[in-house]
Specification:
The chain is mainly beta and 406 residues long. The protein contains 3 helices and 28 strands. The protein has helices at residues 5-12, 321-330, 386-403; strands spanning 16-17, 24-27, 32-39, 46-50, 55-59, 62-63, 70-75, 79-84, 93-99, 105-119, 128-131, 136-139, 142-145, 149-154, 160-162, 165-167, 170-171, 174-177, 186-193, 200-215, 220-223, 229-238, 242-246, 252-253, 264-271, 274-281, 290-298, 301-311. Strands 11, 14, 17, 19, 20, 22, 25 and 26 form an 8-stranded mixed sheet that branches. Strands 2, 4, 5, 6, 9, 10 and 13 form a 7-stranded mixed sheet that branches. Strands 21-28-27-23-24 form a 5-stranded mixed sheet, with no helix packed on it. It is found in: Cell membrane.
């Protein structure tokens, strides 16, 4: 077949679209611009039409639609621009640029209107207070275009114990917790996103009620007369408990922090549903020994714990080997001569105790040697044996203390 030159000349005389109409994506509320470029338009006219509704929006230089958000601009009888101000979701669809040739010529482009996610408050859970051991369901519903992806996570970033597993994120609109415990008490975030900024979240505070529980690090404390001692107690409760200390007789202990030097000083520090309590007893006296009770109460119950304070012997001062050596040296006569049996590095000395002097040459000390007791020093120890003698002296002192009646 051979082309007819007259047909070619006829085609060249008609308008033609210089480029396709691009599909555009616009976030709701912003402005959209659709461009139609026609070459060789001559005396023909351009029109914009909404395809799905077959609504004529403009014809050549005139806007036909009654929609006040739509306007038209053109340039050099070649470029024709359709403006849509503050686009709405209803503006989403196909738009056609037509030229009134016979037959009609046209190009079309798609306007995509995207919507950032938003939480539907009426269908989303609010802050909740539940009893420990019950089942809890948190719901979150979001809207947007494209349809948002919804997930749950803890605000503090900790893992969630869900269905026996520890997870960081739960996908979906529903967060179900079976047999909720105090460990689940936290703020939870429902996060919705669909690729259109910004993502959005809602904070739901979950509070779990339970009666007070109590733990005591040391149920038996010891102190000597004149010492300061601190008793400690840890509690857990929600709602927050009322905590206090009592004496053995049941009297509540009240301290005045504005006055210094009081016999008792109480202190408490809260961290979430846990509370640390301490009772400081200054200058412990004989009347202070006995039992002290830590008490915690809330609307769901109460609990208490007992701490016993016992008396222990006051510590005694034990002279070091160096001080013993110095004291003994001072006890000698000033004009006493050095013993000829003294050996420089070993430091062997002479001591007398109601009898002749006892001398020990270097190397004479061994495990069977007699060492100082708590009351009497009978043998001098050389430098190499001083450590052994000190341990023996401490042992003898401890045995002596234990044998004395309290």
């Amino acid at each position: 077949m051979h082309e007819n030159p007259s047909d070619f000349n006829t085609e060249a005389s008609f308008p033609r679209f210089a480029e396709p109409i691009p599909n555009i994506t616009v976030t709701i509320g912003r402005d959209a611009l659709l461009a139609c470029v026609v070459d060789n338009l001559k005396g023909y006219k351009v029109a914009w039409v909404r395809v799905d509704t077959q609504t004529i929006l403009s014809i050549h230089h005139n806007v036909i639609t009654q929609n006040p958000r739509i306007s038209l601009t053109y340039n050099d009888h070649r470029s024709w621009y359709l403006h849509i101000r503050e686009v709405e979701e209803s503006d989403r669809g196909w738009y056609m640029c037509q030229v009134n040739t016979d037959p009609m010529r046209s190009r079309k482009g798609y306007l995509q209107v995207v919507v950032p996610p938003a939480i539907i408050e009426s269908m989303t859970s609010n802050d909740m207070v539940v009893r420990e051991g019950t089942n809890v369901t948190l719901n979150c519903k979001a809207k947007g275009f494209p349809e948002p992806y919804v997930m749950w996570r803890r605000e503090d970033g900790d893992e969630m114990a869900i269905s026996g597993e520890n997870v960081n994120v739960v996908d979906g609109e529903i967060l179900h917790i079976t047999k909720v415990s105090r460990l689940h008490m936290a703020a939870y975030l429902c996060v919705a996103s669909n690729g259109v900024p910004p993502s959005i979240s809602k904070r739901v505070q979950l509070r779990v009620q339970f009666p007070p529980m109590l733990s005591i690090p040391n149920q038996l404390e010891g102190a000597y007369v004149g010492q300061d001692v601190v008793l400690e107690c840890h509690t857990e409760a929600y709602p927050a408990s009322i905590n206090y200390w009592t004496t053995e007789r049941g009297d509540m202990i009240i301290s005045d922090t504005s006055r210094t030097g009081d016999k008792f000083e109480t202190m408490s520090r809260n961290t979430g549903y846990t509370k640390y309590m301490s009772l400081k007893i200054r200058n412990v006296g004989p009347a202070d020994f006995g039992s002290y009770r830590c008490v915690a109460k809330n609307s769901l119950g109460e609990t208490d714990g007992l701490i016993k304070l016992d008396e222990i012997p006051a510590p005694t001062t034990i002279l070091t080997t160096e001080s013993l050596y110095n004291n003994r040296s001072k006890g000698r006569k000033a004009n006493k001569k050095h013993d000829p049996m003294m050996v420089g590095d070993y430091g062997v000395e002479e001591w007398k105790e109601n009898g002749p002097s006892i001398r020990h040459p270097p190397g004479a000390f061994h495990n069977g040697a007699v060492c100082p007791t708590a009351h009497t020093v009978t043998v001098c120890c050389g430098v190499l044996f001083l450590l052994h003698c000190l341990v023996s002296a401490l042992t003898s002192q401890l045995q002596y203390q234990r044998s004395q009646p309290r």
